[in-house]
Amino acid sequence: MKVLCDRGALLDAINLISGVVANRSPRPQLKCVKLTATKDGQAGQLMLEATDAELSMTLLTERVDVEQAGEALIPADKLAQIVRAEENEPTLTLEVEGDTTHIRGADAHFQLRGFEAKDFPEIPGFTAIEKDTAAFTIKAGVLVDLVRRTLFAAARENSRYAINGVLVRRDGKKLEFVATDGRRLALCRDTLDSDGDGMTCIVPSKALVTLTKLIDDPDEMVTVSISDNRIAFGFSAGDGTGRALIASNLVEGSFPPYEDVIPKGHDIKVGFDRDVLASAVKRAALLTNEESRGVRLAFSAGDKKLELSSRVPEMGEARISVDLMSMEGDDLEIGFNPGFITDALRVIDDPQVVFELKAPNKPGLLRSGSDFVYVVMPVNLQ
Question: 3.30.1490.20, 1.20.1730.10, 3.10.150.10, 3.40.50.720: which CATH number matches 262-376?
Answer without folding.
Answer: 3.10.150.10
